[in-house]
Amino acid sequence: MSDSNIKEVFSKFKTAGTFFDAGPTGSGHIHKTFLVRTAEKDKPDFIIQWINHHVFPPVHEMMSNIRRVSRHIRKKRKQDEPAEVLEVIETRNNKSYYTDSEGNHWRMYRKLDPGISYDIVPNNKVAYEAGKAFGQFIGDLRDMPADEIFPVIPDFHNIEKRFKNFTEAVREDKAQRVREVKEEIEFAGRAIEEMLVIPRLEREGGLPVRVTHNDTKLNNVLFDENDNAVCVIDLDTVMPGLTLYDFGDTIRTAANTAEEDEADLDRITFSIPVFKAYSDGFIEKTASFLTQEEINLLPLSARYMTFIMGLRFLTDYIMGDVYYSIGYKEQNIRRCRAQFRLMELMNEKHQECKEIVKQSVTRHHRAAGE
Ligand code: ADP
Ligand code: GN1
Ligand code: MG
Question: Based on the domain organization, do 224 and 353 belong to the same domain?
Fold first, then answer.
């Protein structure tokens, strides 16, 4: 994608600034993201994204969801709150995205300044702030009727469905890679049973379905220079879901002290101080409405989300890397191995995590006079 392509796309949107230059930014696995800098010092810069319509075929519905959710959150912001809300820029003919002559879809956001994102937690404050930001996000959307949101990717975090897809991929063995990943396949077979607690309880009506973010990787919250969280981004997967998905996925990415695709498994550690800081932030914003079942399952949710991602990376590797962007051939299997290692480490600290959550909830209930 050259500068002139992006310049052409930029010209389709309503902006006051003049295009200066563009370049790739961010480390997301799905879309292609570009930072557009404007020539004027007093005008904002912008983020342009090529929307991956293979992953998100209902582009129109997804964009409607994003606008609806950001509008809802914006209304809740009090004047003295510095928190930002993702701002979709309209095209010159008032659409939320632009479709080019080749059928590619593009969208534009105002770039948040400085809009710092982290793949690895640099300190506990970042973890605490991320917890508050994602907790607040669920709280803000509590009164949003779930049927106003289109389920863009149905069964996104349904482990039974994901396991079925995985089993089929193993059976088909399209890329002839099954023989390379026997150990990982066996690991998945052993790990699945414990995870089924969550879908079973949901089916029995034991877990409330809320409007959740569903992609709460640490790099989907933006920070200022003082490590205050200022904005939750990447709203593509906002759908009816479980609180557990949002809590668990940030722990997967934040409490792991190594990269998501770390090849040296000895470098992966599960940080209890990060778990504690994130839990404190998240619980501070949600303790008033979480049910006892949700609270009880928060520690398991970290392993659930780590497992589902490991399983999806493994499935994609077996299928020949058809879903996630990869930077090198082994990346998906490395991502999978790192997730499975992280699950083992989380398991060792399960009791400690339960205790941390319990104490944090008690503290927040007490502070609220409950
Ligand atoms: P993906 O689904 O591919 O992860 P994201 O929407 O998360 O796409 O964007 C990828 C990265 O681009 C983010 O992690 C962040 O670094 C940057 N980014 C996205 N939107 C903005 C924004 N509005 N302001 C500043 N940076 C942004
Ligand atoms: C993808 O778009 P990004 O990079 O934030 C994926 C998530 C996975 C994540 C793994 C739509 O998120 O579900 O958790 O990669 N998003 C989609 O890092 O599949
Ligand atoms: Mg992202």
Answer: yes
